[in-house]
UniProtKB/TrEMBL annotation:
Residues 374-388 have a biased composition (Low complexity). The lineage of its organism: Bacteria, Bacillati, Actinomycetota, Actinomycetes, Kitasatosporales. Pfam families: Pro_Al_protease, Trypsin. This is Serine protease. The keyword Cytoplasm does not apply. It comes from the Bacteria. Residues 1-22 form the signal peptide. It comes from Streptomyces fungicidicus. Residues 359-390 are annotated as: Disordered. Residues 187-345 form the Peptidase S1 domain. InterPro entries: Pept_S1_alpha_lytic, Pept_S1A_streptogrisin, Peptidase_S1_PA, Peptidase_S1_PA_chymotrypsin, Trypsin_dom, TRYPSIN_HIS, TRYPSIN_SER. The chain crosses the membrane at residues 409-429. GO terms for cellular component: extracellular region.
Length: 447
């Protein structure tokens, strides 16, 4: 009877393991890998690419939602009109603007300064915060004067700093930062956040008592860029991986990834200042933080404060950037910079996890991440489809809870182990019984 029970237990355990493996959730829905190192963002991308950087100087979204393309000649303007966009004649081409930023980058580095190409004014704007001395500002002004009158110098209040300390707070010995977006390599899930939050090896927790571990930083880049990956301790991001929190238990479904457009209305979520909105004012911005220089950033007039660093920037449910730094605050306003998500995904070799549709189906992958043809007019833009926030960070897990989970192979393995032990025990018991019977028979025969 013991042997029969053990064999039955082996069959039952094998069936449980088989069902658990078959029922394991697959990899989360994710948008395709981004492979482009440099993209021309925005609805005017196609016509700008056709005309080239010597005849154009960027594109943006006007207040009425129309696409405007800066061009240097009338023939190019006619091409823009035929493409369904509005042309604006300017003096300086994209080549001129890029040449100016290159010369600024080759000058002596001055912490507290930043520059970006302002497509709408056809200028390169150089900003200096309150920490920049009069001598350093004078020296940088001489460099700008040598480039040309299309370089505009502006003093700004506050201090350009990384916003250390988002949507969901994460803490480590390196400081307090924010979970940006959840991403995956197809095998494991990660948090994409700012690179300045902490070096590789930093361990992150969801609580200030270090009881609920989130994961460990395994890759990143700062300065130069400003992104990093936190590998989840449990391997998976959990329920709600495609949702970003916006406060009061509410969230926004993230359904795709793209590069933003100048003039586009965007939203940023952070644990310090909550959900805020503003406008993209420039692309490919360079900021000289005290820790080092970061280039290729998105510039905006969305406010941010310490505690918002690494948090997500998005619009219409499309992921755009993670908070890097800036100046000012949400009382007086200021300038905030973001690391583009597309570039971080391409460099790290991961994909953005997207949210299922409201009916429970998986969201369809977004098109190539370099275009935002569907960008709404600034006044009509919204954060995206709203939903409740559930499980943005994985629930704490124990060995007992994992073994008790019916989706786990643990219960089946326990049944198999117990059955094997019973089978071995039954064989030992039978052998011992045979030995005792032999001794009794021997004694009775020989007296």
């Amino acid at each position: 009877m013991t042997r029969l029970a053990a064999v039955g237990g082996l069959l039952l355990g094998a069936t449980m393991v088989t069902h658990a493996v078959a029922g394991e959730p697959g990899a989360p829905a994710a948008v395709p890998f981004s492979t482009a190192e440099e993209t021309t963002p925005g609805p005017g991308a196609v016509v700008v690419a056709e005309l080239g950087t010597s005849r154009t100087a960027g594109s943006w979204i006007a207040g009425d939602g129309a696409t405007v393309v800066a061009v240097t000649d009338e023939e190019a303007a006619a091409e823009v009109r035929r493409a369904g966009a509005e042309p604006k004649l300017v003096r300086h081409s994209m080549d001129d603007l890029k040449s100016a930023t290159k010369k600024l980058s080759s000058a002596t580095r001055v912490p507290g300064t930043a520059w970006a190409m302002d497509y709408r004014s056809n200028q390169v704007v150089v900003r200096g915060d309150s920490t920049v001395s009069a001598d350093d500002w004078s020296g940088l002004t001489e460099v700008a004067d040598g480039i040309g009158d299309f370089v505009r110098m502006e003093r700004s209040g506050g201090v350009f700093t990384t916003r250390v300390n988002g949507a969901q707070p994460i803490l480590s010995t390196a400081g307090r930062c924010s979970a940006g977006f959840n991403v995956t390599d197809g095998k494991r899930d990660f948090v994409l956040t700012a690179g300045h939050c902490g070096p590789e090896g930093s361990v992150w927790f969801a609580d200030d008592r270090a009881r609920q571990e989130v994961g460990t930083t395994v890759a990143g880049s700062f300065p130069g860029d400003d992104y990093s990956l936190i590998r989840y301790a449990g391997g998976r991001a959990g329920e709600g991986a495609g949702v970003v929190a916006v406060g009061d238990g509410k969230g926004v479904r993230i359904t795709g990834v793209a590069d933003p457009t100048v003039g586009q209305r965007v939203f940023r979520s952070g644990s310090t200042s909550g959900l805020r909105d503003g406008e993209v004012t420039a692309l490919n911005a360079t900021v000289n933080y005290p820790e080092g220089t970061v280039s290729g950033l998105i510039e905006s007039n969305v406010c941010a404060e310490p505690g918002d660093s690494g948090g997500p920037m998005f619009s219409e449910g499309v992921a755009l950037g993670v908070t890097s730094g800036g100046s000012g605050d949400c009382r007086t306003g200021g300038t905030t910079y973001f690391q583009p998500v597309t570039k971080a995904l391409a460099r790290l070799g991961v994909r953005l996890i997207v949210a299922p549709e409201a009916d429970g189906g998986a969201a369809a992958p977004s098109p190539a991440p370099s275009r935002t043809e569907g960008a709404a007019a600034p006044d009509a833009a919204s954060p995206g489809s709203s939903t409740a926030v559930r499980g943005i960070l994985p629930e704490p897990s124990t060995l007992l809870s994992r073994l008790a989970d019916p989706r786990s192979v643990g219960p089946g393995l326990l049944v198999i182990g117990g059955s094997l032990a019973a089978l071995v025990a039954s064989r030992w018991i039978r052998a011992e019984q045979d030995r005792k019977a032999y001794r009794r028979q021997y004694s009775a025969t020989w007296g």
